[in-house]
Write a structure and sequence with these properties.
284 residues, Rossmann fold, globular
């Protein structure tokens, strides 16, 4: 009976994957004998779709590419969910090198996977929001581009960024935080750099989004809950203000009553706003 149940579960899972046109555990690079992998989901009723790359959160030290949000897949976008080296495995900026390697790999293999590589978008939440925005802002900065993967001559540039409640200014986040936020963020940042925070001011500035805002940065969609006790809402307000000062395309949405994540961030109305933001970039 147990064997029949297991076979049934596997059959249902395989059917689900086929219906989503999913290809799992594609190796996009190998670093220090560690394979970096991604999962690719293709929409059912869209030919030559644009690609959104999802980067998970987890305080930079945990999380997985499994179970990404499928909301934009349902809107007709292809979705790639990637793993990257966390701070348990490597220190800053290794994870930025990995994400850029994933962008280069996907752009290089767009013909094989049958998505449109003309415009690629990054989407992440929490620490993933920080990582996608930093990745998108740092085109052709060699210490952040890195040399991960086999597609080093391919551009890692993206055309749009979706940042859900990510940190932006690591030099101010502790002073803005609640006691809960300090308890979570302090150890996570120390782990990111491999040293105590009071010795990390240079690294905090180097890993902060506000350090890299320039007039050629990609359009940015920011979303933050007004009751977030883990990443202060001021982090998104600071980034929004810096984008406005630079004359860049940016949209900031507050999710009233929401904390750090939750189903309110995947409300159909909010996802429609994200979709329209991306379509405004595609139409240009």
């Amino acid at each position: 009976m147990k064997a029949k149940y297991i076979v049934s579960v596997i059959s249902i899972w395989c059917t689900l994957l086929q219906s989503q046109n999913a290809v799992l555990n594609i190796r996009y690079a190998t670093v220090n004998n560690m394979d970096l992998k991604l999962d690719l989901y293709m929409p059912e009723h869209s030919s030559d779709p644009y690609l959104v790359i999802w980067v998970h959160g987890g305080a930079w030290h945990s999380g997985s590419k499994s179970n990404p949000p499928m909301d934009l897949l349902k809107k007709g976008y292809a979705l790639a969910s990637i793993d990257y080296r966390t701070t348990i495995e490597a220190k800053f900026p290794a994870f930025i090198h990995d994400i850029k390697a994933a962008v280069r790999f996907l752009r290089s293999n767009a013909g094989q996977f049958k998505f449109n590589a003309e415009k690629i978008f990054l989407w992440g939440s929490s620490a993933g929001g920080h990582l996608v925005t930093l990745t998108g802002m740092t085109n052709e900065l060699m210490d952040l581009e890195g040399e991960v993967g086999n597609n080093l001559t391919t551009s890692s540039r993206v055309q749009g960024i979706i940042d859900f409640y990510g940190p932006s200014n690591l030099s101010t986040i502790m002073s803005q935080s609640t006691p809960h936020g300090i308890a979570v963020r302090g150890p996570a940042l120390a782990l990111m750099f491999g040293k105590p925070l009071d010795l990390s001011i240079g690294e905090l500035i180097k890993a902060s989004l506000l350090t890299y805002v320039t007039k050629d940065d990609p359009p940015l969609f920011i979303c933050h809950g007004d009751q977030d006790i883990q990443v202060p809402i001021n982090q998104s307000i600071e980034l929004y203000g810096r984008y406005i000062e630079a004359g860049l395309k940016v949209q900031l949405e507050f999710v009233y009553g929401a904390g750090h994540g939750g189903k309110q961030f995947y409300d159909s109305g909010l996802i429609n706003k994200v979709d329209e933001f991306l379509k405004s970039i595609i139409r240009k």
